[in-house]
Amino acid sequence: MGRFFAMDKNKKLESLRKKMEAHFSARKIVFGEGPADAKVMLVGQNPGEEEEKTGRPFVGRSGKFLNKILEKNKILRADVFVSNVVRFKTPENRKPTKEEIAECMPFLEEQIRIIEPKLVVLMGQVAWMATRIVGPAYFETYHPSAAMQYTKARARFEGDFGKISEIVEKL
Ligand code: URA
Fold this sequence. Notes:
The protein is an alpha/beta fold. The chain has a single domain (2-170), classed as 3-Layer(aba) Sandwich (Uracil-DNA Glycosylase, subunit E), CATH 3.40.470.10. Helices cover 51% and strands 11% of the residues. The protein contains seven helices and four strands. The structure holds uracil.
């Protein structure tokens, strides 16, 4: 990816961040992080307490588990853009409502349009609802917290990241 192109994407991401902060002015948002020209995006549900505190996605318990799986499969977290469908913490970490998901979805769409990843990994039921914009390939897997909780989901999640790593190698 050319340097100037990536710079342009950084600017676009910054203006999207400002737009989101203005839209959700009463809330602390977690924008997502990673290279503006990442080939791979990971999308989760919504931030929890740790994420809200730090302003960074997947830094709590499920984030640590996700990091372990990424590492095991030789995927550098620094190379991927990590994001969420819903950008704010919900009370008691309840599942976001349909309305919250619908309100946040255009921002995810725009983020994907700017980054233009080749692969978008949708982690968990809320992420599976993401609009499939034309361009990237989509891969559905479980949410890391489900994988941490249930043996079968964990096996599937680990297997999926094995497959994702093979796909990433060829990108
Ligand atoms: N769970 C999510 O879905 N996203 C985060 O950023 C953290 C936990």
